Amino acid sequence: MPEDRITQEKIERYRNISKKALALAKKNISKTKEQEAKVIIEMVSCYLSDSEYFEKKGDFVNAFAAISYAHGWIDCGARLGIFNVKDRKLFTI
Predict the structure, then answer these.
(1) In whole angstroms, what is the distance from residue 14 CA to residue 70 CA?
(2) 12, 31, 51, 72: which could join 66 in a potential S-S bond, CB 3.0 to 4.6 Å?
(3) What does the longest C-alpha to C-alpha distance in the chain come to?
(4) Per-block average pLDDT, block size 10, for the chain (93 residues)?
(5) Where does residue 86 rank: exposed (0-12), middle (13-18), buried (19+ CB within 10 A)?
């Protein structure tokens, strides 16, 4: 199957990556940026929930887009030092 297709398997794979990154981020919040982390974690959780909603409706494009937004928020927190993470496979740091 071509890589340019959004499949249910691809959605699941990328959602799991984002959930893994979120779990690691939650464990590594900068002590001075807890309020910022709370906002980011809430946004990530909402986007991951949205992705599940869209997937259940069969809207794979928006499901995948929501995952991308979720992970973008996580990466933003990592780049700004809100999350003290070092894993270059899960985060853009």
Answers:
(1) 10
(2) 51
(3) 46
(4) 84 98 98 98 98 98 98 97 96 90
(5) exposed
- 3-state per-residue secondary structure call for 4-18: CCCCHHHHHHHHHHH
Tokens 């809430």 correspond to 42
What amino acid is encoded at 20 in this protein?
K
Beta partners for residue 29, in sequence order: 83
Rounded Cα distance between 74 and 84, Å, is 11
Torsion over CA: 17, 70, 4, 59 (sign): positive
Instruction: State the pTM of this model.
Output: 0.92
